[in-house]
Amino acid sequence: MTGLLHTARLPLQDGDLLAAVDLGSNSFHMVVARYVLGQLRVVDRIKEPVRLAEGLDARGGLDPAVRERALECLARFGQRIRDIPPQRVRAIATNSVRRLSVPHAFLMPAESALGAAIEVVAGREEARLIYLGVAHAQPPKPGELRLVIDIGGGSTECIIGAGFEAIERESVQLGCVATTRRFFDDGKLSAKRWQEARAEVAAQFQQFAAAYRALGWTEELGTSGTIKAIGSICAELKLTKGAVSAEALPVVRDRLLQAAHIDQIDLPGLSDERRPVIAGGILVLEAAFEALGLQRMQVSKAAMREGVLYDMLDRGSSLDPRETAVEALMQRYGNDRAQASRVEATAMRLFDQVAKPWRLDADDRLMLSRAARLHELGLAIAHSKYHLHGAYVIEHSDIAGFSRQQQQFLAALVRVHRRTIPKAPFDALPDRLLAQVRRSTVLLRLAVLLHRAHEADPIPQLDAHAQDDALTVTLSGRWLEARPLLQADLAGEPEMVERIGVALRFETA
């Protein structure tokens, strides 16, 4: 579980296996696919109803029994993917893990059980991955917009996309498990309670419904176990042939409300496994139909896990969404591209000399490169403490393609690239990333200092030698003598980086 969660491009060959793991709020899923002639062929699927959302309390704690259930499931998944190289496994955690007050307390044993790193993604990134999976499973018509809705256990994602690109992405805190618990926690059902709950749920969709309807779409697709289950119920009741329609939903709802209690729900085609959470799912979908003016929704066979697989194929290539996102940030905040390029080139020059002894890989190189390009982002807000402004923007923005850990890593590098290093700058990061972020910090700080004067001329000599947590940098004595400000900056740097456990020494030649 080294590196930064597989940011480098996968060196795939025909026959290689890839695996995607989805730690959903209702169920955990795993799909294993074989890479053949540039395509993915699914060879195995595993699903377990962990119901992680059921174990969450109002303070972000997780019930010990649910936690153990989740870890046992991940251990079984881990057995299946044991022989697949870590760089070809990607595990994604969603709403319920996002809501944990101390995510590390769950993620550390979870990663050990699975044998792979687990990324926590924001709702809008989850939406992008969902759309990508649907788009590959059911290729869209050229030039047409489509609406995709996914009702998970803890959240619902709504996406408008064209081709393979998600144009609008929204995530609301409404899922089948969470909504059932919120409105029907005692299990009792009634038409009055339903109407009150629907009004409250519909208000969540109304926040973006007008903008979505103004943009429009020509096709509506639903994905996830909840919408698939509702489609099956509609088919069993002979209301549709598996789709969900505006006419069918009220019939399904009224049939559900014939039961006075969730345990008594009798809907044809509904599994015992889904019965405890179907009320919340139907409620959310009915509210979405009403707010968005939906008439008929086809059911997609794909979901986020398929999107994760296809996203892995694009990582590190020209199609990598993170490269587009970094470029968009630079453009939006007016970064000095010439300076960013100088700092990036020097950071890469240093990186390539110390990568092997410092056990830094291609993932770390890409992240350092991105930090170098974005290190001055905060200047658009104010020069004073611009490193703090830039770090805040990076950590709290929705940046396509990045997990929360990756954004925190990138934000940490930008936060400490200049001035004093705080005592605990990397607390938000998991322990497995601390060595990389500390060493990358030193390289970025040096690159920034060496280009503080914004000189266009190249640095004539820059040799770096690393061993354990020690770094020796050799510069041209004549070149350095002509730069007294740089000499002063470099003189104080060893003391600065000593705070993060790196012994830095300068030599001249």
TrEMBL record:
GO terms for biological process: polyphosphate catabolic process. The keyword Hydrolase applies. Its cofactor is Mg(2+). One of its GO terms (molecular function) is exopolyphosphatase activity. Its main location: membrane. Its EC number is 3.6.1.11. Keywords: Cell membrane, Hydrolase, Membrane. Residues 31-315 form the Ppx/GppA phosphatase N-terminal domain. It catalyses: [phosphate](n) + H2O = [phosphate](n-1) + phosphate + H(+). It is found in: Cell membrane. Pfam families: Ppx-GppA, Ppx-GppA_III. It comes from the Bacteria. GO terms for cellular component: plasma membrane. It is an enzyme of class 3 (hydrolase). InterPro entries: ATPase_NBD (IPR043129), Exopolyphosphatase (IPR022371), GppA/Ppx_hydrolase (IPR050273), Ppx_GppA_C (IPR048950), Ppx_GppA_N (IPR003695), PyroPPase_GppA_Ppx (IPR030673). It is a peripheral membrane protein. Residues 322-493 form the Ppx/GppA phosphatase C-terminal domain. Belongs to the GppA/Ppx family. Homodimer. PANTHER family: EXOPOLYPHOSPHATASE. This is Exopolyphosphatase. The gene is ppx.
